[in-house]
Amino acid sequence: MRLLKTGAFVRAAQAAKFSVPSCSRIPISSPVTVPSRWASSQAQAQASPDEQPFPEQSVNLVNEVDPAKTAAASSQSGDHARFEKKLQELDLGNEIIRENGQSGAKILGAPYIFDQTSNLSSSILDLVGRNLYDHPDHPICITRKLIESCFEEPTYKHFAMGNPVVTVRDNFDVLGFPADHPGRSRTDTYYVNSTHLLRTHTSAHQNAAFQWLANNPSSKGYTICADVYRRDSIDRSHFPVFHQMEGARVWEAQRNRAAQIERNCEEMPKTGLVVEDQATDFTGTANPLQPEHNPDEVYQVARHLKLSLEYLVSRIFEASRQSLPSAARTDAPMQARWIEAYFPFTSPSFELEVLWHGGEWLELLGCGVVKQGILNKAGLNDHISWAWGVGIERFAMLLFGIPDIRLFWSTDPRFLKQFTRGKITKFEPFSKYPACYKDIAFWIKPVPSASSPLGSQSAHTTSGVAAAAGGDATKASPAETQPAAFHENDIMEVVRDVAGSLVEDVKLVDEFVHPTTGRKSLCYRINYRSLERTLTNEEVNGLHEEVGRRMKDLFGVELR
Ligand code: FA5
Ligand code: MG
């Protein structure tokens, strides 16, 4: 039983409230300006001078690739063509269809034929097309607008990307992801089929956006907002769908470009952030500048990038502080630090972390100087550029004091009614319903991945590399000593499919290797808790038994 995530619900919500982007192809050089549907003149009139709603400047940027056409082109046999035609004609929302040994899905109106790489589940498809970032009173949209307001037009153009189906090429290949990067693994990424996937990061649109800049030289940069999808663990800060924003700024070739960028740095607003910069050396092999670049320019581009993001973070923290009651506000400055990072498409690369409650460092964003090959491919040969990517939920949880990432998907009016466009208000928890945890223990099957329907590829070999775009190289599968019959993300996916948002977290609580047989046993604790009501024992037992059944059927585990 799933409260939030039934296909029927999503279709109703789509019809009533959320816009479903059309799949028609629009040339990259002529983006469509979306009318300010949600900019209410009433809200504008009511806002006090220091509570101005963030500006409305959204544009839809459409990928070069039309997924419907590519999907059609990729199917070869007559059977496939017939099945695809049938899918095309069926009047469905997002749905998976299995018929006579064939399977496929309809996603936002386009048909896709599955192959051996496909690993989509209906629970994930139910979330496609909700477009939370387009709903003006939703905290994701309010946060998006606040971020966009830090990167002003006309220098920056703002894009939102509705359709999450992109090509493997756009998500990984064009960006230079190595073949064994963990982000490419089927355990970490939702594949529609071997050529298409649900984007794992907004950088999937980087190439298209740079092409747009090449054709629109009056703009010098952009932001892109989109929903992104990763097979991941289940806890209060991880959900298989979250939102990212990406930004870039280019400088064309000009005499003394370093001095020009330096002037742009001087123009940046000053912030009160206390920032430690541990990533200033680009001369070694750890975080090198690119050989084709002028070092003076790289240092200025990196400085401009860091100043721009420090400005963004200081605006977020100031907005968060202002939304607290005056007695709860402190004047203590926010502490942040720059550390070195690795992304296949930038060098040097950085991450910004902030000191979180309890003294923990929390990663807010990744960024860097764009690889020259990527700019060249987009027609920006003589340009230099920085780019960044941030997680919107990370900022929104902080801004609104939202304690659980599942809440962003809630349709409960007690949640939705608390937020208003252009305003940052602290979330008032409406209730905390009781949790009910249950353990599931099983022996994993000691066979190679081929027999696992969602099996791993050999993608855990990129060690010591900070993962970009999903695929956590540091999170080893607990089963890694027994080759890939089971990956931790597989149980996460089963739990999500069975119980959806009724699970707060899933944790490995015990691991055990039999001393004589060498077989491995794992025990996971599933914490069932609804955000909206009290779950009955009977209901939780039913869900838990179904999780056990599916683990047995799909992964051949032996329940203990
Ligand atoms: C990326 O996705 C890169 N595309 C970012 C980038 C863009 C780098 C452009 C350079 C140039 P990463 O996987 O670290 O990187 O994710 C970027 C941000 O998304 C993180 O810093 C974090 O804020 C957010 N994020 C990542 N994973 C999650 C998650 N599971 N839940 C919520 N937010 C997340
Ligand atoms: Mg990261």
Please tell me about this protein's structure.
The protein has 560 residues and is of the alpha+beta class. Among the domains are: 279 residues, BirA Bifunctional Protein, domain 2, CATH 3.30.930.10; 94 residues, Alpha-Beta Plaits (2-Layer Sandwich), CATH 3.30.70.380. It is 28% helix and 22% strand. A hairpin with a 2-residue loop joins strand 12 and strand 13. Helix 14 crosses helix 15.
Tell me the name of the CATH homologous superfamily of the domain at 139-417: Bira Bifunctional Protein, Domain 2
CATH topology of the domain at 139-417: BirA Bifunctional Protein, domain 2
DSSP strand (E) fraction?
15-25%
Count of alpha/pi helices: 15
What is the end-to-end distance?
25 Å
Shape: globular
What structural class is derived from the secondary structure elements?
Answer: alpha+beta
- Contiguous runs where pLDDT drops below 50 for at least 5 residues: 1-60, 62-75, 448-466, 473-484
Q: Give the total of beta strands.
A: 19
Helix content: 25-40%
Mean pLDDT equals 81
What is the highest CATH level, the class of the domain at 139-417? Answer: Alpha Beta
As a whole number of angstroms, the C-alpha radius of gyration is 24 Å
Biggest sheet layout: 10 strands, mixed
Q: Name the ligand types.
A: adenosine-5'-[phenylalaninyl-phosphate], magnesium ion
- Please identify, by name, the CATH architecture of the domain at 139-417: 2-Layer Sandwich
Family: Belongs to the class-II aminoacyl-tRNA synthetase family.
Organism: Cladophialophora immunda
Domain Aminoacyl-transfer RNA synthetases class-II family profile: 226-413
Subcellular location: Mitochondrion matrix
